[in-house]
Amino acid sequence: MTDETPGSAGEGRPWWHGGAEAMPDVEAIIGPEGMAAVGSAADEALKLFVVLRDRFVTATQSDAGPGPDAGREQAGGESPWGALLGQFAAGAVKAVGEIASAATQQGPRSGSATPSGSGAGPGEAEDAADWPVLPGEAAACSYCPICQAIALFRSVPMTTWQRLAASVVEVADAARDFTGGGQSDHGGPVVVVPQPADDAPPAQSVAEFLRSIQDPPQGPGDAAAQ
Amino acid sequence: MRTVVVTGSAGSGSSTVALGLARGHVQQGRRTVLVRQGAASAEAPEGGEQQPVTRTVDPLAWAGATWDAAAPVRRLLGPPWSTLDGHSLLPVPGLSELSWWGVLRQVWSEGWDTVVVDAGPVAASLPWLTVPDTAVGLLRRTSPLAERAGAAAGTLEAGSWHLRAMAWLDSEAAELLDTLRSGATSVVVVTEPNPHQLGRALQALAPMALFELPVTDIVVNRVHARRSHELAVCDRLRERLPDIAVHSAAERRRPPPPLDLATEVWPSLTLGPRPPRPRVGRTGEQFVWHWRLPFAEREQVAATIAGEDMVLTVGPARRSVPLPSVLRRCHLQGATMSGPVLRLTFLPDPAIWPANKEEP
After folding, report:
1. Contacts of B298 in chain A (CB under 8 A)
2. Chain B nearest CA to A156, separation (Å)
3. Cβ-count burial of B153 within 10 angstroms (0-12 exposed, 13-18 middle, 19+ buried)?
4. A178–B contact, CB cutoff 8 A
């Protein structure tokens, strides 16, 4: 992996942590004087949003050609939020394509998808073959709440999710019981005896069924069998 | 794993059918075990050629083995529990039912392809077949919801050992019920075409349906090929029980040995589809809970609500069923019998029904 961080050779980071400039040293994360590269969940979410926005703007600009206002021009003069959404959609498609392509080639990252520089040094080919590094695997990820949350979700077996999905109805029922103001007293302890239905013949008991088969039409073999 | 429970009226040949089913599965190359009641000394540890492995249900032997296995716990309790030997135990009420489930639980954990259970006459098999459901219903009604939730979440206090024991018992019984009611378990009822035997077998269908035992097949055994009214019995049963597959087996003047009969007749027996389960439907403002109870007599059916459960009585059988969520907010208005279908009618409780609750 192309990691320029001292002491962390071979360890990659998820791309939303930014390049080497954004997070130069793992030790700095925990050092009192270091750069606050990994912060609270809110900080990381904000950082993720900013990196996503930058990446999508870059991707859109590269699609639309050079020029600082290419993304805005592509949005066709819409509101800033509309332009941002357009950039978001276009960038997401491009980012997914890049990641899938890199994963297929099993090669070092390139272009804007490279999180920590592009200088692959000697002896790092094996590390590059491990790309993409999953969230939570890099050393810095142990300090990142988002990475840890993703790693936690990934560690849950699929069967657990399937069981949870199957219990959604039960959970909904319990929630409805809770919000519905409790249960009915059902009008008190009443013993209900079923009445015959008007639209159907009465149920045939075992005795009636046996009587019905004890008077059969006599067949030719019955006399011989007696 | 496929489980087939064979029961029937006494003397109708249910053991022969069970053995035949087991042999049929062995011939198909499936690892098959036959569970039946009997002395433990009659147990065959290894199945011979075309012979299923046999496990026997011997209540006293099972109780003794279980008692001896619990020796470490009994030593903690001290005398007389620690000194009582397993061979000196006496038969107590309920031991026979528990021994069936103890043996079945062991067999189910052994990874067989097919488990054939020769459950004997219905009068003896119904009590133990309904034990897990009755236990779950009893525990559900005697344990407060908060305690059950605490047991499930593992947050019970250290001193609440009895709640832990009840939670363990509840989970064990629920596991047995899951296996019994899964699509891989079938109940086969064996009878003869004469009124005495047929009546005994048919009277068991309603209690079995009440406890949701998956009766898939009825075998009318020893049908004389030249007695048209005996042949007609099968046709009438097929008309009355469209959800159950009805088979007939011929009477023979000189009955061959059971193994020959099993080999010739029963491997071709295919088990029928799973019968429908009770369902809740809606008709206008009413909710209707449908129960299919074959041959249930209307005068012997009663229903009442106890807490979160509906207690249904069909003749001598009684079951406590948890109410579906929507029916827990309803009044039980009435019930009707339409053929074999019991329809329990519920009306929304105006005091707590959400739509009415919003009204001033």
Report:
1. 193-196, 202-203
2. 18
3. exposed
4. no
CB B275, CB B216: distance < 8 Å: yes
Pick A221's closest partner by Cβ from B226, B298, B329.
B226
- Please list every residue in chain A whose beta carbon sits closer than 8 Å to the beta carbon of residue B306: 189
Residue B24 has pLDDT above 50, yes or no: yes
Distances in whole angstroms, Cα of residue B222 to Cα of each of A66, B13, B237, B263, B267: 91, 9, 16, 16, 17
Q: What is the pLDDT of residue B157?
A: 61
pLDDT above 70 (res B168): yes
CB A112 within 8 A of CB A55: yes
Is the pLDDT higher at B232 or at A129?
Answer: B232
How far apart are alpha carbons A119 and A150 in whole angstroms?
A: 28
Q: What is the pLDDT of residues A15-62, one digit of tens each?
A: 666 554 444 454 444 445 444 555 677 777 777 787 777 777 766 665
Kindly state the helix (H) or strand (E) to which residue B309 belongs, with its residue range: strand B309-314
- Judged by CB atoms closer than 8 Å, whether chains meet at A219 and B228 is answered as yes
- In this complex, the residue of B229, B339, B351 whose CB is nearest that of residue A213 is B229
In a 13 Å sphere around the CA of B165, the CA atoms on its Cβ side amount to 4
Residues of B in contact with A208 (CB under 8 A): none
Q: Are B179 and B3 in contact (CB under 8 A)?
A: yes
